[in-house]
Structures
1.
Amino acid sequence: MTGRRPPSGDCPLKKTPLITEISKEFTFEAAHRLPNVPEGHKCSRVHGHSYRIEITLRGPVHPQFGWIVDFAELNAAWQPLHAQLDHRLLNDVPGLENPTSELLAAWLFERVNVPGTTVARIRVAETCTSSCTVYAAEG
Ligand SMILES: Nc1nc2c(c(=O)[nH]1)N=C([C@H](O)[C@H](O)COP(=O)(O)OP(=O)(O)OP(=O)(O)O)CN2
Ligand SMILES: [Zn+2]
């Protein structure tokens, strides 16, 4: 420690460019079966999960409101997706014929739309111990 302090009024933190994200967790109940698993795999049978979905958005922090967007906007964007998934057999949902966590996360990634933000990542948890996270690839 040199004990050197920045000059008064020169807060180094204020000069650090920040990346800010907000996240919200959602749930739905659904059944599925995995049609492409090896014969005899337990997931070839229809079974159900209490899915937990975490959606993370990235964007600029509004200078007046101090937020990226109101969490309520993310909640509103989720509602039509919830309507398509909740209490469904996911295999019947167009685009989810093989409803693995990976493909469900990608399906959601293509559909979440909150103006003024980009989707940073989506996490799909089928069980307490199993989850998948997708991110936008760089470039
Ligand atoms: N990479 C993936 N592997 C599996 C998926 C998947 O989507 N991606 N899905 C399943 C099944 O849907 C299964 O219901 C969930 O998997 P699993 O963690 O094996 O579930 P269990 O509760 O039975 O786990 P245990 O820890 O063994 O009790 C399978 N694999
Ligand atoms: Zn399953």
Note: The longest strand covers residues 21-32.
2.
Amino acid sequence: MTTHPAQLINGEWAAGLGSEFKSVNPANNEVIWSANSATAEQVDAAVKAARQAFYAWGDLDLAERLTIVQRFAQELKENSEELAVAIAKETGKPLWETRTEVGAMVGKIAISEKAYHERTGTVENPMPVGRAVIRHKAHGVVAVFGPYNFPGHLPNGHIVPALLAGNTVIFKPSELTPYVAELTLKLWQKAGLPAGVINLVQGEVETGKALASHKGIDGLFFTGSSRTGHLLHEQYAGQPGKILALEMGGNNPLIVKDASDTKAVVHDIIQSAFISSGQRCTCARKLFLPVGAQGDEILEHLIRATKAIKVGNFDDSEQPFMGSMISERAAAGMVAAQQQLQELGGESLLELTHTANTGFVTPGIIECTNVTNFPDEEHFGPLLKVFRYSDFDAAIEKANDTSFGLSAGLLGDNEADYEHFLRRIRAGIVNWNRPITGASSAAPFGGIGASGNHRASAYYAADYCAYPVASVELEKVTLPGTLSPGLNID
Ligand SMILES: NC(=O)c1ccc[n+]([C@@H]2O[C@H](COP(=O)([O-])OP(=O)(O)OC[C@H]3O[C@@H](n4cnc5c(N)ncnc54)[C@H](O)[C@@H]3O)[C@@H](O)[C@H]2O)c1
Ligand SMILES: O=CCC[C@H](NC(=O)CCC(=O)O)C(=O)O
């Protein structure tokens, strides 16, 4: 058992009492962090600490809570390079990208403050007698579950609005990125967050299960795979009193039609499909190209440019576009996905290859037009499936032929085509002539179908962090001028 104090419970760092787990740099399998997971008893202690801290935290004025949250933004800025390096080491993502991730964490604070007022502010209206007031109140104790691909930014997108609203939090990060979680929580402490307001429970699935099933939480905000999200949804069935926000995966389509600038099209496809080594929920998985000369030219150019993508270490002085995937296992999973598609009739136009004993893969492109029984699965890596089409409506129909509905895009010069696409396509993020990755924190972010449960995050996260309270108020109990028929109060 290690003695690494990886759990933050009621303001105290403590060693986990469960099984040991490790975090590795996926580029070279070097162990960079190890500790023991939190047991169910430790999770229980964290929930109790959060409950105990709830009234005092919620009783603070918004301005007081905001001061602490803004100090956290300052801590993030002052420690941005250390955090960016930690994210890069733990996930394999290149530094240029992880610096952007830390920047998004800082940016989240001002955006969440604005959203708090705009989405959940207080509205007061005079009435013939007294006034009507709409306010919003925190749910209480909420659990936040984070994914590995943005271990800083995405949990932060739940935590910041939850704290601003007055909730207290138990954070369960991905077991693949515990080091980033630990560093982030240390910054919250340095910012002066009172003990118990955020608690950190680290560990593998058992720790997650203990937290998700704990009777003492009022809500659960989850970002992760559709598989886990569905399990949680089933687990929360019959508990209407608990707020569940699920941000899950996608199987996202990108259609090209009548776009004159081939280079720009290829750029937007690559930026959509291969950024973060394809490990973004919004990444394009299916590319629809028209049959004919224009589609042929785009495809040829795309293959050439994809072959030229630089894959490398997070800290290479000449920065790569793609780093390592999160793990050797994830990389092997992409090889298996490619093989499955080949067996179903897919033709590799550019083979995805895996460097043994590492998380490195090269990006792949596979033509799937003639694949029957195309699997509606999110392959969370850099493998783009190409479909050729001759009818725009048929392409849109095929793009919609998925249980997911996160992001979608059209690359094309004709606005009427975009308006048609916008009316037909089923997704929560729909872009025109822009990559479908890189969504803004200043807009709602969420999907339909298997991608989410209609609790959009980012700018709309404020909505699931508080519930509305409607009041009619009068400063003194007063007898009405006219009584209801049949009443005699004398
Ligand atoms: N829609 C979005 O906003 C969004 C953003 C980023 C990633 N994602 C999705 O996340 C996935 C990648 O992340 P991941 O692999 O870390 O997700 P994951 O579902 O494996 O894990 C997410 C979290 O849930 C925990 N967990 C796993 N099984 C659990 C269980 N049975 N009970 C309780 N907790 C459990 C994990 O420990 C982790 O903290 C992809 O599918 C991606 O599309 C979605
Ligand atoms: O992997 C999933 C997230 C991808 C990312 N989305 C956001 O950052 C949404 C904005 C926010 O949560 O503030 C993307 O679209 O690239």
Note: Residues 5-248+452-472 form a domain with the Aldehyde Dehydrogenase; Chain A, domain 1 fold (CATH 3.40.605.10).
3.
Amino acid sequence: MSDKLKDAKIIFVVGGPGSGKGTQCEKVVAKYGYTHLSSGDLLRAEVGSGSERGKQLSAIMQRGELVPLDTVLDMIKEAMIAKADVSKGYLIDGYPREVKQGEEFEKKIGAPSLLLYIDAKAETMVSRLMKRGETSGRADDNEETIKKRLDLYYKATEPVIAFYEGRGIVRKIDSEGAVDVVFSNVAKAIDGLK
Ligand SMILES: Nc1ncnc2c1ncn2[C@@H]1O[C@H](COP(=O)(O)OP(=O)(O)O)[C@@H](O)[C@H]1O
Ligand SMILES: Nc1ncnc2c1ncn2[C@H]1C[C@H](O)[C@@H](COP(=O)(O)OP(=O)(O)O)O1
Ligand SMILES: [Mg+2]
């Protein structure tokens, strides 16, 4: 346990690929000043660095698979510590993606006070990702990889919701509607924390 993160307020943002996690996190940052850490963005930064590890991560992500737990957890922990002196709290976007990740996070960093479950229909996620893929330049925003990511989400990530539901900290947010409508419900969930 790192004592710099001992009392950190932590919100997990969990949802399928293309559900709207990143979009909602940006609006939470603007309104509440939380520190937004996206596991995918951290991984893509490592890929962009051209490092040997980045090359391995890129191959995994292009297949729509999960990267090794220790890799993504260490990256998030490092990024949290780097901001510990200025952070009002952390939005952990895209993690945990399996129950084991949640358990390891709590051993090494701490427990979340809220899990925002950003929920959209499969066909909505597919169409949003195909559209995002037109401009994102992401190697995983293509039909074949999207299908793998969705399958993995239903198999490995949805059990995370049930795991934390048992603690009563899950707030399910319908992400089908317009961005601002979705955000009004995200804000209600966060305001309910105080
Ligand atoms: N409520 C919404 N309505 C329409 N499009 C949305 C909505 N939320 C997100 N999007 C779009 O869908 C795509 C995926 O959103 P993003 O926030 O990147 O999701 P995630 O981080 O969960 O993959 C983006 O192109 C984004 O602009
Ligand atoms: N917690 C995690 N564990 C393992 N792999 C992860 C991960 N978070 C992200 N990745 C890998 C697999 C994901 O398909 C890829 C992109 O993640 P992302 O940017 O969060 O996707 P999206 O925002 O489309 O949901 O990075
Ligand atoms: Mg995202």
Note: The chain has eight helices and five strands.
